[in-house]
Amino acid sequence: MGATIDATPAGPRRTVTYVFPVYNEAENLRLLHASVLAVTEPLACRYDFGFIYVDDGSTDESAQVLADIAGTDERVTVIELSRNFGHQVAVTAGLDLADADAVIVMDSDLQDPPPVSAELLAQWELGYDVVYAQRRSRQDPAFKKLSARAFYWVLQKVASVDIPRDAGDFRLLDRKVVDELRKFRERDRFLRGLISYVGFRQTAVQFDRHERHAGRTSYSMKKMMRLAADGIMGFSVAPLKLISRMGYFISFLSFLGILYTLGVKVFAPETAVPGWAFITIGLFFLGGIQITMLGVLGSYIGRTYAQSQGRPLYTVAAVRTGSPDRDMESRTR
């Protein structure tokens, strides 16, 4: 394992806030909170801990479970979004509210082992501003492992910043990093890319990712593809460059076809056969390429249009804490 923290008080107490995005995780939340408390209690003499749970429009009993947890722990804050805005936006809502020296972002399905967060804190104490948990192994289906490996390979090839491989959103962020991230309000968010973009001193902690404790993942194939598109299009113009290269390649093939046709007409006219089938296939091929190119252009234009609308990233229905007088009503950010 990595470095450990001396629980003996040393210097002024520092504040640490955990941020948990939640979507239909009612079966996991009580165990999650208990597990995090088991990690943080030995360190309570050194840090003041807080816990922010962001309910991203859950349709199960997650809201009620979170209300029960907040009722038993005054350090808990529950942000209830007005609908499902997505994982990355839910994390953003938690970061916007967090007011601590360091913020630890963790998923709520217990695949991110809570004890690893103590290792993140230990590296933070050594002076690192971003400490990301990097998967040494993962208990996922073979297809998900293969697709994740392919995604990170492509991302490292085309991205304009160095985004760590096999590192999700499980990480610790220093206060100054969180302050910088709050300036980025783009709608199609890929937080691990934004964190790499802002820079600062970053390091990794290796860990073995667990299986989901209970329930089903909310990350469908469609959502995973969307996140992959956000990562690639948000930090690379390679798809646009590919359009030009494809155009050059097709033009080169067309030039070869012209030379071949002229050669047959001049040197072997008796072998020339009406090529209606070839022409038809060629037209369909070029039509498919053109539609694909328009789709890539449309994706970039659509993102630009959505950003230009200036709509808030999310709407908060309520912010609930263990202290009823601190509860707040809906707001937008």
Describe the structure.
This protein is of the alpha/beta class and 333 residues long. It contains 10 helices and 9 strands. It has helices at residues 26-40, 62-72, 87-97, 116-125, 142-158, 175-181, 191-198, 221-234, 238-267, 276-308, and strands at 14-22, 47-55, 76-81, 102-105, 130-138, 167-174, 202-209, 315-321, 331-332. It has a 9-stranded mixed sheet with strand order 7-5-6-4-1-2-3-8-9, with helices on both faces. Strand 1, helix 1 and strand 2 (47-55) form a beta-alpha-beta unit. The model has no long low-confidence stretch (mean pLDDT 75).
Tally of individual domains = 2
Q: What CATH first level of the largest domain would be assigned?
A: Alpha Beta
Can you tell me the CATH superfamily of the largest domain?
Spore Coat Polysaccharide Biosynthesis Protein SpsA, Chain A
| Neighbour order of strands in the largest sheet | 7-5-6-4-1-2-3-8-9
Described by the principal axes of the CA atoms, the overall outline is elongated
- In whole angstroms, the N-to-C terminal distance is 39 Å
- The average pLDDT value, as a whole number, equals 75
Number of distinct helices:
10
Number of strands: 9
Key features?
single chain; 333 residues; alpha/beta; Spore Coat Polysaccharide Biosynthesis Protein SpsA, Chain A; 2 domains; 9-stranded mixed sheet; 10 helices; 9 strands; 47% helix
Give the SSE map.
Elements: E1 14-22, H1 26-40, E2 47-55, H2 62-72, E3 76-81, H3 87-97, E4 102-105, H4 116-125, E5 130-138, H5 142-158, E6 167-174, H6 175-181, H7 191-198, E7 202-209, H8 221-234, H9 238-267, H10 276-308, E8 315-321, E9 331-332
Parallel strand pairs: 1-2, 1-4, 2-3, 5-7
Antiparallel strand pairs: 3-8, 4-6, 5-6, 8-9
Helix pairs in contact: 1-2, 9-10
